[in-house]
Design goal:
globular, disordered C terminus, Tetracycline Repressor, domain 2, HTH_TetR, Arc Repressor Mutant, subunit A, HTH-type_TetR-like_transc_reg
Length: about 200
């Protein structure tokens, strides 16, 4: 039984790579089963549709993000150090789970309405927890809270792809990303906590 579960876990990893590289909408269940070396009936036994498999992979992604934030929460509460820990953890996850990041960003809209609602619930939970770690007493409305958490999460999760086409050494890429993320997120946190005045543009 353990060997069979291990084999199916490997199949899920292969499915993730196929979806992320080729595009979820371009892969049919029969093609997926053939790629995994499974009979279609065996695949349907575990997942009644491609969408169920996609949802499982996306849930896995958010569960890992939430577990990462949970570990950071248990560390000493120094705001500057906390931000650096959050940045480093997200950059590490991007290196460890690149296919998940791509799949979530590009293919979440392929899920049905109920599944998309589940993903939004997980996303909001993660984004709210992220903001609470970085800014425990935000001076924001409920909608402002959701927007700030979403903005910070978007920057953290998308920034590594901005440099994907540039052949940089790892240390140089990491330094650029850390400086970029620190500056952007500190500015956002300043507004979220009320420490920065609103900037108003005056038209002459």
């Amino acid at each position: 039984m353990a060997e069979r579960c291990s084999r199916f876990a490997e199949s899920r990893d292969k499915a993730l790579e196929l979806f992320a590289s080729k595009g979820f909408g371009q892969v049919g269940m029969r093609e997926l089963a053939a790629f995994l070396g499974l009979a279609p009936g065996s695949l349907y036994h575990h997942y009644p549709s491609k969408q169920h498999l996609l949802l499982d992979l996306i849930e896995e992604f958010y569960e890992e993000l939430l577990a990462t934030l949970g570990r950071i929460e248990r560390q000493p509460r120094d705001l500057r150090g906390c931000l650096q820990n959050v940045i480093h953890a997200h950059l590490n996850l991007h290196r460890e789970m690149p296919w998940h990041f791509r799949l979530v960003e590009r293919d979440s809209g392929c899920l049905n309405e109920d599944q998309q609602a589940r993903v939004r619930q997980l996303q909001e939970h993660y984004e709210r927890q992220l903001l609470m770690i970085l800014c425990p007493t935000p001076q924001l409305s409920e909608q402002g809270l959701l927007a700030a958490g979403h903005a910070i999460a978007s920057v953290l999760n998308n920034a590594p792809s901005w440099l994907a086409l540039h052949p940089l050494d790892d240390w140089e890429r990491n330094e650029l990303l850390e400086n970029l993320l620190s500056g952007a997120i500190e500015r956002l946190l300043g507004h979220a906590s009320g420490d920065l005045p609103d900037v108003q543009t005056k038209v002459a």
